[in-house]
Amino acid sequence: MGSSQSSDKLHCNRYLNGQGPPSLVQQANEGLNGMYSTHTGCQPQGQVTSVILHRDLPGFPDDNTLQLSYIFPDGIQTEKHPHPGQPYAGLRLCAYLPDNREGRKVCKLLDKAFEKQLLFTVATNDNGEDVVTTASIPLKTQPDGGNRVDGYPDSDYLKTVRMLLKNKGIE
Q1: Average pLDDT, the chain
Q2: Which has the least CB within 10 A, 35, 60, 109, 170?
Q3: What backbone torsions phi and psi does residue 155 show, to the nearest 5 degrees?
Q4: CB of 28 closer than 8 Å to CB of 60
Q5: CA nearest to 55, candidates 144, 151, 148, 158
Q6: 98 DSSP β-pair partners
Q7: How far apart are CA 53 and CA 120, in angstroms?
């Protein structure tokens, strides 16, 4: 880590002293001054694919749905992760966006963040197991059900994600 980077800005759990990533509000407020680095994160190797579903999301009745599928196989942690050399459990996760101009823009930004390894990380879950999990950028993992289950409707989601990604140098 270079001397110009503060270790408290890194979102890999290994460097957080067990505190987890900052809240979305903290990230947004801290990111306004452009301090976030555009370096790659600590995301393990995985893949993302997308398809268009012919159904609407709550709050977007005139639009189809973009479904992003993220797949991470089981693997061995690197020096970027909490327990280097130890195994971690992979992840299969779907995220949803409206298939409209703003949703497609966010989709492209999420793809950039995925390529820079900023969307996912390896962390220890409540059962003491190391697993792939989302990092500091929230994803809508349910097509409906509202905010309490990471679903739609959520009128601020696209704007919030764009702001958080911009704060990480993804535009």
Answers
A1: 84
A2: 35
A3: -65, -20
A4: no
A5: 144
A6: 65
A7: 24
CA-to-CA distance for 24 and 117, rounded, in angstroms? 18
Q: What is the model's pTM?
A: 0.76
For residue 43, is pLDDT > 90?
A: yes
Backbone angles phi, psi at 88, to 5 degrees: -135, 155
User: Tens digit of pLDDT for each residue in 103-119?
Assistant: 999 999 999 999 999 99
pLDDT in tens, 115-163: 999 999 999 999 999 999 999 899 999 999 988 889 999 999 999 999 9
Q: How many angstroms separate the Cα of 93 from the Cα of each of 79, 115, 157?
A: 24, 17, 18
How far apart are the two ends of the chain, measured CA to CA in Å? 24
Residue 19 makes CB contacts below 8 A (sequence gap 6+) with none
| DSSP-assigned beta bridge partners for residue 57 | 60
